[in-house]
């Protein structure tokens, strides 16, 4: 009797919480996004994305049909979305022009980086879009606790929180009225993350250090590496690894002398299809590590402790979780 | 007397306008030849053509019998020195530095600076009465002092032929006279462009330039006639005789 | 005579020692701390096969990173300073510097073309692109100067104006390329290179830079009397027996080549060619026999110091060396201007 009543109460509670979470969006929807208020009268009919992370989130939420254009790609789209992606026009491999975006008359522009659309946005400012009644949604992963006007890729004032990724997914789901899908996606990611970070304490005890190398403006010049408090740094810390880079910029340039002396236990290299710089090619990065007279003596290079992760796996996106999983597995295998 | 420097049918023009045209001139060894003429008559250009600083548009120059164009600048500089009308520098050089430059054509890796070069420089400075100002900075010199340093530099070159372009322009009268006396007393052949017609009377020969052409050549008496003074220089002139030594001087009136 | 040549010998030794000390300092100081004893041990190992047991990373840093940078910095500083001396003498202009001939502007355009347009289809490096750009710009400037001049002796005014025109053209091209093709990231990378960067130099660069600088300095040293002869102008030099056209062409081509090579290796490092000759003049006077070697020495030491400063001024960050030379050079130039008025 008591047990069955508990069960009923529990079921009601569960149902009501689910209903609260998975209920349809109440329009007009107002939400706060990176310091601006966005209002949606209804679910947007179509959208343009600037940034592969936003693109793949929308695909994961089953919104592929509503995508009118994509841009800013680092690598091949996830294989499960390949067919869907083939139907969506690609406005640019890198940054699109303002006119190409508004030419699609989107109901929403989903932006991965504030330096794409923001106060000093290369595509345009938010005001430019909002003046045309096109709301711009910047993923909170790039603006929360971060000052994008300082440092080339911005500087983290607060360490990156994984919650901002979940918030991005939830808010996009809310805007498009597919909150049940959003919840399911977030729950799945949380589960995978929890599994990957188990064992963080043991790794921390062993003082395993790591370095993320994204790319370099030229093979000869100082590399872009992951700084403190950023997404890559979060990945390292959540696994109990120590980031050898001390700068708080998102992707600072640090000289090879400093990096070699720091001698990290593990090296993480970014793989991408983009070829803006010669060092984008992970093969070139590997070749450099093997041939440079100082870098080749680094512990990680000598012992083959090199992990290769997708570029978007080091940035706030769905692939980040995959990146954490890959890194965790590799580090544990190195033991 | 042998001809040390000569030109035949020498000409130079710019933008179609002839600055110097059809000049034939033979300069004899040891003489002092004055070059006179109104402004713009081509005196400076003629001197530059004769010294090889400017390449002629037409005609040829011969130095001691050899075509000027066939000689190296260094060989020319050892025989011929040219003093410009105006030459200035913003470098922080001393008087001595400037005069030492005159030894340039005689120095080389095998013939570095030595006591004999030193002596020649000191002598040149003394000749222009600047020996006591050897260490003075160029920027502190007056116009006349600068001119004397230029002349000293030319003297330091130890040339056989000296070309001077209006060297007495900025000098006060005392120095004008001493420079002219010096120049005349030197055993070198001298070609000197002059403005002051009375000073020109002291030369061995005179050449008159008018609109790029050499219109008269000969002794001062032959050349500086009252007709010439009227036609080329546009002045009325009268010769006066100094009762003390019988020398002739000119007195000028406008026409 | 004996006293004079032995004094010269001693002076030369002293200058070489000073240069050696500067290079050692450039090797011992850097982004990370390496103990001086380790530095000497590395040098002993590499030069005399001393056989000390050392961390290969330390060894690599000292020998492959820092020593190469110090040597290239010294070569670049000497080359640019001497180029500045030559141009200031030949063009009779105290504001002349090696970049007047359009070389820096051309190098920037070349490098940017390779980086942003992918010119050369991946076969050309940034350095090669920079060199070709520098040569192209210089050729244009030389042609312009030739076309503008008409007198028997090249007027310095024509060369200066042609240089300005050429530089402006290539600078405009560079700006156009950057705004049209570059993302913010690319622009940032290129900007770093354009402001001068000794980060990626290796022994290959040393083998190019050092002989180039030596050859340039020696060639100019051979012509010091001719340079002196230009004190009162080109016509005065001609009357002193200097083959003006030939000397101008030789020395300008020499400085253009040395500057182009240096800029293609390290980017545009400003103020060295402009300010170092003046600083040297303050020390030893205007006679080129002393001015040329002293300028080379001061230039070398200055650039080594600037490189060390660019790496150690801000922890964990490397400043572009061109920024350091400008920050030091501009006030130094102001001081020289003011002092120069009072002295002499």
The total domain count of chain A is 2
CATH topology grouping of the largest domain in chain A: Rossmann fold
Q: What level of helicity do the residues of chain A show?
A: 25-40%
Instruction: Note the total helix count of chain C.
Output: 14
CATH architecture descriptor name of the largest domain in chain A: 3-Layer(aba) Sandwich
Tell me the domain tally of chain C. 1
Mean of all residue-level pLDDT scores of chain A = 87
Strand order of the largest sheet of chain A: 5-4-3-6-7
CATH top-level class of the largest domain in chain A: Alpha Beta
Report the uncertain regions of chain A.
13-20
Individual helix count of chain A: 13
CATH class of chain C: Mainly Alpha
Query: Structural class, from helix and strand content of chain A?
Result: alpha/beta
What is the end-to-end distance of chain A? 54 Å
CATH homologous superfamily assignment of chain C: ABC transporter involved in vitamin B12 uptake, BtuC
Cα-atom Rg of chain A, whole angstroms?
21 Å
Q: Tell me, what's the shape of chain C?
A: globular
Largest interface: B-C, 37 and 29 residues
Provide the helix percentage of chain C: over 70%
Overall geometry of chain A:
globular
CATH homologous superfamily descriptor of the largest domain in chain A: Nitrogenase molybdenum iron protein domain
């Amino acid at each position: 009797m008591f047990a069955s009543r508990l069960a009923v109460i529990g079921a009601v509670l569960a149902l009501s919480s689910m209903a609260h979470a998975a209920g349809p969006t109440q329009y007009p929807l107002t939400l706060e996004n990176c310091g601006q208020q966005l209002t949606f009268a209804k679910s947007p009919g179509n959208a343009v994305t600037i940034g592969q992370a936003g693109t793949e989130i929308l695909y994961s939420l089953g919104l592929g049909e509503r995508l009118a254009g994509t841009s800013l790609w680092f690598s091949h789209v996830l294989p499960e979305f390949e067919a869907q992606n083939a139907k969506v026009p690609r406005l640019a491999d890198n940054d699109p022009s303002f006119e190409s975006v508004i030419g699609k008359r989107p109901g929403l522009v989903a932006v991965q980086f504030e330096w794409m659309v923001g106060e000093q946005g290369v595509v345009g400012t938010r005001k430019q879009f909002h003046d045309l009644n096109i709301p711009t949604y910047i993923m909170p992963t790039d603006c929360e606790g971060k000052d994008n006007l300082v440092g080339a890729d911005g500087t983290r004032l607060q360490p990156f929180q994984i919650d901002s990724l979940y918030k991005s997914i939830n808010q996009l789901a809310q805007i498009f009225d597919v909150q049940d899908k959003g919840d399911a996606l977030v729950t799945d990611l949380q589960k995978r993350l929890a599994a990957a970070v188990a064992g963080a304490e043991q790794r921390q005890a062993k003082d395993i250090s790591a370095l993320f190398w994204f790319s370099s403006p030229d093979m000869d010049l100082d590399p872009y590496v992951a700084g403190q408090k950023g997404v890559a740094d979060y990945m390292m810390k959540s696994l109990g690894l120590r980031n050898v880079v001390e700068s708080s910029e998102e992707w600072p340039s640090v000289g090879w002398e400093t990096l070699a002396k720091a001698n990290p236990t593990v090296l993480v290299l970014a793989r991408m299809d983009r070829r803006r710089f010669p060092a984008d090619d992970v093969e070139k990065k590997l070749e450099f590590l093997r041939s440079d007279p100082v870098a080749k003596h680094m512990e990680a290079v000598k012992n083959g402790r090199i992990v290769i992760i997708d570029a978007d796996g080091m940035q706030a996106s769905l692939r980040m979780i995959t990146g954490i999983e890959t890194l965790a597995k590799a580090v544990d295998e190195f033991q | 007397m042998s001809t040390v420097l000569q030109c035949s049918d020498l000409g130079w023009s710019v933008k179609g306008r002839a600055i110097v045209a059809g000049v034939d001139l033979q300069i004899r060894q040891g003489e002092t030849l004055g070059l006179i003429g109104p402004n713009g008559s081509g005196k400076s250009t003629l001197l530059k053509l004769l010294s090889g600083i400017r390449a002629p548009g037409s005609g040829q120059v011969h130095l001691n019998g050899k075509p000027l164009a066939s000689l190296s600048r260094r060989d020319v500089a050892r025989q011929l020195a040219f003093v410009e009308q105006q030459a200035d520098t913003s470098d922080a050089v001393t008087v001595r530095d400037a005069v030492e430059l005159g030894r340039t054509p005689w120095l080389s890796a095998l013939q570095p600076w030595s006591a004999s070069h030193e002596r020649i420089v000191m002598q040149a400075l003394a000749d222009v009465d600047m020996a006591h100002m050897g260490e003075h900075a160029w920027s502190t010199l007056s116009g006349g002092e600068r001119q004397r340093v230029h002349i000293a530099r030319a003297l330091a070159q130890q040339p056989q032929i000296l070309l001077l372009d209006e060297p007495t322009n900025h000098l006060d009268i005392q120095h004008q006279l001493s420079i002219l006396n010096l120049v005349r007393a030197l055993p070198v052949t001298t070609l000197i462009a002059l403005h002051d017609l009375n000073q020109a009377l002291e030369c061995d020969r005179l050449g008159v330039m008018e609109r790029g052409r050499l219109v008269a050549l000969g002794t001062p008496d032959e050349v500086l006639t009252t007709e010439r003074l009227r036609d080329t220089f546009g002045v009325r002139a009268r010769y006066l005789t100094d009762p003390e030594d019988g020398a002739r001087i000119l007195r000028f009136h406008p026409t | 005579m004996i006293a004079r040549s032995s004094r010269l010998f001693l002076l030369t030794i002293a200058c070489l020692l000073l240069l050696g000390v500067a290079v050692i300092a450039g090797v011992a100081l850097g982004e990370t701390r390496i103990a001086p004893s380790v530095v000497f041990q590395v040098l002993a190992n590499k030069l005399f096969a001393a056989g000390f047991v050392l961390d290969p990373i330390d060894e690599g840093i000292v020998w492959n990173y820092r020593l190469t940078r110090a040597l290239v910095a010294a070569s670049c500083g000497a080359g640019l300073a001497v180029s500045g001396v030559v141009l200031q003498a030949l063009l009779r202009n105290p504001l002349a510097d090696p970049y007047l001939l359009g070389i820096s502007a051309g190098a920037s355009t070349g490098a940017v073309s390779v980086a942003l347009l992918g010119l050369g289809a991946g076969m050309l490096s940034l350095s090669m692109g920079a060199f070709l750009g520098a040569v192209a710009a210089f050729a244009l400037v030389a042609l312009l100067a030739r076309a503008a001049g008409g007198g028997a002796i090249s007027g310095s005014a024509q060369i200066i104006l042609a240089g300005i025109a050429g530089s402006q053209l290539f600078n405009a091209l560079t700006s156009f390329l950057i705004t049209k093709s570059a993302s913010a990231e690319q622009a940032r990378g290129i900007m770093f290179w354009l402001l001068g960067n000794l980060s990626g130099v290796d022994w290959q660069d040393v083998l190019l830079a050092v002989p180039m600088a030596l050859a340039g300095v020696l060639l100019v040293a051979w012509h010091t009397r001719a340079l002196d002869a230009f004190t009162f102008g080109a016509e005065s030099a001609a009357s002193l027996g200097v083959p003006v056209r030939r000397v101008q062409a030789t020395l300008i081509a020499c400085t253009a080549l040395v500057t182009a090579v240096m800029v293609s290796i390290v980017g545009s490092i400003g103020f060295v060619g402009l300010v170092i000759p003046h600083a040297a003049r303050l020390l030893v006077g205007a006679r080129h026999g002393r001015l040329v070697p002293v300028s080379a020495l001061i230039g070398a030491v200055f650039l080594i110091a600037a490189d060390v400063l660019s790496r150690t001024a801000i922890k964990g960050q490397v400043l572009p060396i061109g920024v350091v030379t400008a920050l030091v050079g501009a006030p130094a130039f102001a001081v020289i201007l003011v002092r120069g008025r009072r002295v002499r």
